[in-house]
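Re: the request from the purification team.
They wanted to know what the chain is likely to look like in 3D before they choose a buffer screen. I agreed to run a prediction and write the result into the notebook, where they can find it.
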Amino acid sequence: MKRILLALLTGLMCLPLTARTLTLEECRELALQASRTQTSDEMKAAAEANRKAAYAAMFPRVTANAAYTYSTMDLNLLPAEMNLGAGTVYMAQDGSAQFFWDEGSAMGQMVEQTKDMAVVGEGVQQLADASGQMIADGYKQLYDQMSLDAHHVFVAQVGVTQPIYVGGRLRELYKISQLAEQTVGLEADKRRADIIVAVDEAYWRTVSIKHKQELAEQYYNLLVKLESDVEVLVGSGLATQSDLLKVKQKRGEAELKRLQAKNGLQLSRMALCQLCGLDLDEQIDTDESGLTDVVLHDTVSDYRASVNNRAELQMLENAAKIAESNVKIAAAGLQPNIVAQANYVYSNLSAENGFRNDGRNRGFFTAGVAVNIPIAHADDIYRLKAAKHAARAAQLKVDETREMLTLQVTQANQRVLEAQQKVAMTNLAVKNAEEVLRLAQESFRAGMIPVSELMQAETAWMAARTDQIDAEIEVHVMESYFKRYTK
């Protein structure tokens, strides 16, 4: 029972895995799905956000600001000691006020003259003290009113800024953001077209190697049969040992080519899996049903329309337009800028009705227009010159690329026509080689030609079939490149 189970498991392991057959369109779709990355989506979103930001810069901008300041020192507009002409007033640390008459003042002289008179002097002194205190109390009230109470200061402001004219800078920035967004889309289109071409090339290369492997198997089987026939002829004396050695040598070479084709097919399938985003060891097969369907090529009479639609040229044209916008932005630095502003300001300190900080203050509104006129800005002049040179260089790059792309389309068109002609020639060569091989086999069986001539016919048939496969694959690959360059 153990031996039976072991034999069954060994047989199951030796069974070939079912390969997944993929068409060319399926491979393209898989490759495009595998190429979609989160990075490209983020780049598109960033370009769109930049365009919206450039558009929003044309509208009013609302800003709110607030500030709070604490200070250990109070602010007062009056000094703590002031000479009023007739005397000097002093503000004490405890908030009390005192006034002292100057000796040269009328009151000071009166006090000095009556200080020896008992009754009169006492009355004058009382009058001087009372009047001085009244002056001190009045100064104290004024001193307190002139104190700002600036220990805690709070300021809030809400402002609106609207650009009226900034030399066309905002308009050009919006154009640049639009062109940048278009360029991101064009880069995605170019990447998609390049992926399709790469998949087509890998797909048809796999088909080519697969057919060459089948051809190598057929050629090997022909030589194996020929070797068997020659061994019989050597035994009957109708062929020499040298003929048999030549056939064996050819059969060894055919076996090596068969192994090389097998390994090449495996590597080619792995490369196709890598492009399609599949596991490298996944078993896939190609649908080569359309290999021999060679459609006649439509020659493009006017290359200009095809070239102008190329993503590469459109991206360079966008770069040239961006350079022109940069020229206008640089020129805006030499033009007047006009901006309108409106602000509402509130603070706990107020001087609207005397200096006070009692919480009953009202905010105030301001509005105005600011104009900036550049007069001597040498740096902006040189920036403008540099921008003009950059714009000219970008336009020259567009013209140069247009000529190169036109040449590329012309070459691609010629290569497709050459590949189609090669297919027709190789088809005729294969028919001739098959007929020569058939006659050689009949002649060999009839003993009319030696082994060497039959091997030459088989080798010629092998070469003709190889050229035919190469031509059929080349026409599909060249057609794919031509569509890439004209769509």
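For the purification team: Residues 62-69+157-165+336-373 form one domain.
Please add any questions underneath this entry.
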